[in-house]
Design a protein that fits this description.
The complex is a heterodimer of chains A (about 260) and B (about 180).
Chain A: H1 4-15, H2 21-33, H3 35-53, H4 63-74, H5 92-143, E1 162-168, E2 173-179, E3 188-196, E4 203-208, E5 216-220, E6 231-240, E7 251-255
Antiparallel strand pairs in A: 1-2, 2-5, 3-4, 3-6, 6-7
Chain B: H1 3-11, H2 15-23, H3 27-49, H4 52-68, H5 80-96, H6 119-134, H7 138-148, H8 154-161, H9 165-184
Helix pairs in contact in B: 2-3, 3-4, 3-5, 4-5, 6-9, 7-9, 8-9
């Protein structure tokens, strides 16, 4: 792609019709957007005219006029138009029609743009809805009491408590699921803890009771900003009913 | 009405008026424009082609095109005479290069108002231009005429004259600028 200076250098060649078509097309594109080059070109065309006029001298043969008029007579007849001077106000309807046409075109263009934006927005919204629906189905599968949960372990081994925590600090969301939890002793409850990466004190992240099959889950959204800290690990302890502010040993499960 | 009076009356009709009449299908208006500018078109084409039959063909073709499409000329684009001179040159070069006419007649805009409607004005202007061209240094005039009237590309001129391509470009541009200054002075 040539820059402005290169196009300027080529203008004489363009005016003299010396440029190959590909380069001439490039100059034409540039001229569409460059008033300065358009002005230069029109001056160059004037130079061409001056130069051409310097060769004026020989008169054409007398027959050329007759030849032209005969050729014109052989042309298909044109509908004659009446050319007359009209008062200025007679142009008002035409002018108004042109204005209306331009205005209509502008409205049509704006309408097309809006429709396009609406379609894009609708497509985005539909995608958003689909994503939400999928997330809801996943959550249902994880948390619904009607869900069946299966733990696959090596054969001939006893299932041990295990849990899985998915924590997204940036939007304050936690999904925790656990399996094979032993039944709770009387007046006791399981409690989940976040162990901060900073090394500060563990933060309580909710209490839970396992169902008859030893399964449990916690889903937290909109966790307060005071708790949205980088996690080093999560842990589960057994606490008195109502939960604790500090974990009670021993740790039942922990995972980094 | 005497013929002198008639000729005077015709000379007062501007090119724009004649173009308007051609748009309305007035063949006499085309004949008047032919009388006014046939010599310009023909002699420019003849200078390039050096062949009278082909020059006459260009003349015929150009005026027929003006008849078919008179709106192609817009008086805002410059004077009709200057415009026709440029188009005639481009058409003749197309002939010379044996290529399909590629000059879009609506594509040429003339900046300087080179008034050549009146024969007297035209003769004076042409004499002035010719003197300016002849007054150019030979090293500028020669490549300019080779490019403009012989249709040689800058590269062809360079190999023909043995001068570097850049020098040819510079001299042609300088020659055009000199002519411009002479005419607007």
């Amino acid at each position: 792609m040539k820059d402005h200076q290169q196009i300027t250098d080529d203008l004489v060649l363009y005016a003299m019709r010396e440029l190959p078509e590909t380069q001439a097309a490039e100059v034409r594109r540039h001229l569409n957007d460059c008033p300065s080059c358009r002005r230069d070109l029109s001056e160059l065309n004037s130079d061409m005219a001056i130069l051409a006029l310097s060769s004026v001298g020989a008169a054409p043969p007398q027959r050329s006029r007759e030849r032209l008029l005969n050729a014109v007579k052989a042309e298909p007849r044109r509908a004659k138009m009446f050319v007359m001077h009209r008062p200025w106000w007679s142009f008002v309807p035409s002018f108004a029609a042109v204005l209306l046409t331009v205005f209509g075109l502008l409205l049509w263009r704006e309408n097309t743009g809006l429709r396009h934006r609406l379609e894009t927005s609708q497509q985005g919204s539909a995608q958003h809805q689909a994503d939400l629906e999928r997330a809801r189905l996943v959550l249902d599968a994880l948390t619904s009491p009607q869900s069946s949960h299966f733990a696959l372990v090596a054969t001939k081994s006893q299932p041990v408590p295990e849990g899985r925590a998915s924590y997204l600090q940036t939007n304050g969301t936690l999904v925790f699921t656990a399996q094979h939890l032993p039944p709770l002793p009387p007046r006791k409850i399981y409690q989940l803890w976040l162990i901060p990466a900073s090394g500060s004190a563990p933060m309580p992240f909710g209490t839970f009771r396992p169902d008859a099959h030893g399964n449990a889950s916690i889903i937290l959204t909109n966790i307060g900003t005071d708790k949205q800290v980088p996690a080093k690990m999560f842990a589960v302890t057994l606490e008195p009913e109502g939960g604790s502010q500090t974990p009670t040993m021993p740790i039942i499960m922990a995972g980094a | 009405m005497s013929s002198a009076t008639s000729a005077k009356g015709q000379s007062q009709v501007t090119d724009s008026m004649l173009i308007s009449r051609i748009r309305a299908g007035d063949e006499d208006a085309l004949a008047l424009l032919h009388d006014r500018y046939a010599q310009v078109v023909y002699s420019v084409a003849l200078r390039v082609l050096a062949e009278t039959t082909q020059a006459e063909d260009i003349l015929q073709e150009l005026f027929l095109q003006l008849w078919r499409n008179p709106q192609a000329f817009d008086s805002n684009r410059g004077s009709l005479g200057a415009w026709l001179a440029v188009i005639a040159r481009h058409r003749a070069i197309d002939y010379l290069r044996r290529r399909r006419p590629e000059t879009d007649i609506e594509d040429v805009v003339i900046a300087v108002d080179t008034r050549v409607e009146q024969t007297t004005d035209r003769n004076m202007a042409i004499a002035k231009i010719r003197a300016a061209v002849e007054g150019l240094p030979a090293e500028q005039r020669k490549p300019l005429e080779m490019a403009f009237f012989e249709g040689l590309t800058h590269s062809e001129i360079s190999s023909k004259t043995g001068e570097p391509l850049g020098t040819i470009k510079t001299r042609i541009r300088a020659a055009l600028l000199t002519l411009r200054k002479v005419l607007v002075a």
